[in-house]
Amino acid sequence: MEPFEQQPVPVGVGAGARRILANVGWRALSDVGSKLVTLLLYAVMARELGEASFGVFVFGLAFVMLVTTLANFGQDGILTREVARDRDLLHRYFANTLALKLAVALPALALALAVAWAIGMSGETRLVILFLGIATVVEALIQTCFAAYQAFEQLSLMPAVVITQRVVTTIPAILAMVFLEAGVVAVAAIYATGTLVAIVLALTLLVRRVARPRLETDPRSWWSLMRVAAPLGLAGVFITVLLRVDTAMLAFFESDAVVGNYGAAYRLFEASLLVGWSVTAAVYPVFSRLHRTTEPPVSLVYERALKLVLAPTLPIAVGAILFGGPLVHLVYGDGFDDAGSALAWLGPAVVLYPVAQISGALLVAQNRQAALAVVYGLVALENVLANLVLIPAFSLQGAAAGASLSQALLVVPLLLLARQSAGTIDARRVLAGPLLAAVVSTVAMFLLRDSFGLAVAVGAVLFVAVVVAFERRFYPDDARALTGFLRRRTIS
Known about the structure:
This protein is mostly helical and about 500 residues long. The protein has one domain (about 15-425). It contains 15 helices and no strands. It has helices at about 15-65, 75-85, 90-120, 125-150, 160-180, 185-210, 220-255, 255-270, 275-290, 300-330, 335-365, 370-420, 425-445, 450-475, 475-490. The longest helix is centred in the N-terminal third of the chain and has 55 residues, at about 15-65. About 55% of the residues are buried.
């Protein structure tokens, strides 16, 4: 079968739900595997290099992601949306997207290094910025391959690339730190090397398993591509600001050790974001094909997507609030006491972030990316201004509280805009089961709070039991879709 001779995509409620759940599963496997391996790297780095060097790495990564953010200026989202509607358009978008990213990112990275030298950053920090900058640019190119996978709903390929990258980065880095006493610069260089391995693998899988896009570029088309992607790109810039500017600003107000503590808490928070990423990656191409009057209507898919992100993130958020300190100590060991309270303040953002992400994906899929950009821009400005007050007053706890506040300010307008695009949303269907289960598990965890392991285990069991019982009783169609998917995965 030729790459573009795909079977017709089923659009029935049952078939669509199964396909979405399958892609959620593959994306989740990719994210869980990568996050676990990356968390291992960060834990060893924090223990072996200490707070200050770990803070340099965290700052360097945040810094290069901010300065190269235009490399991800919405082009991937447009590629996925348009190719999901017409797969032959991959030839038009793929190579031009790669070339455009390089044309934007490389000068930005060079400028960042010049700024780092001009303001007197240490040689060690500049080298970390260089290596992490290379890694960030290459990862932007990998994301374009993932956008093609997503358009063809072939997310099963992502785990191979992402987990391979993390393994070839983490194992050599840990061995170098433990046995060769390698420093933060060597770790950053190994990190960059891992991304080069991953881009080769990503391109190979694209050509062999998805499609063979023609590698033809037309610089004359770049302006039109940037113009179409601009609202989504601006939203992406503002999202990056929301996720990274607090760390960068904290570095200017506090020591490397404080930044290291915040980085430790933030890495744990970021591990929870895989829920939103996984569901969004699966439903975005489906959102792009559906509207109010299709069968199924886009509102039904949106409701189920919200439920899919709320069910796992609500107990995680409660756990972060109740057990931030013990969790940080378990992962990072001694020396990161302040990270526990920062993680607790990040708890609300755990559940708010994926709701905003799903709602934003719906708006983009329905060609309303301009409204998305406005909302994210206003909240990004609020976040910067809030950090100017909160960080000097409350240090890393203020930065964490500001992150949760900003996510709350995002959710309200995005939900309202999504409702305008999708039509009537059954809030009870989305919220009732997860909220009831969260209340029951929270009470249990609070009563058992003196025993960290027991509280987490009991809370998780109760949450799953309550939400499953509730969904089977009141929303059996949703429960059957998930049960059927899990049964097939078990048999296979």
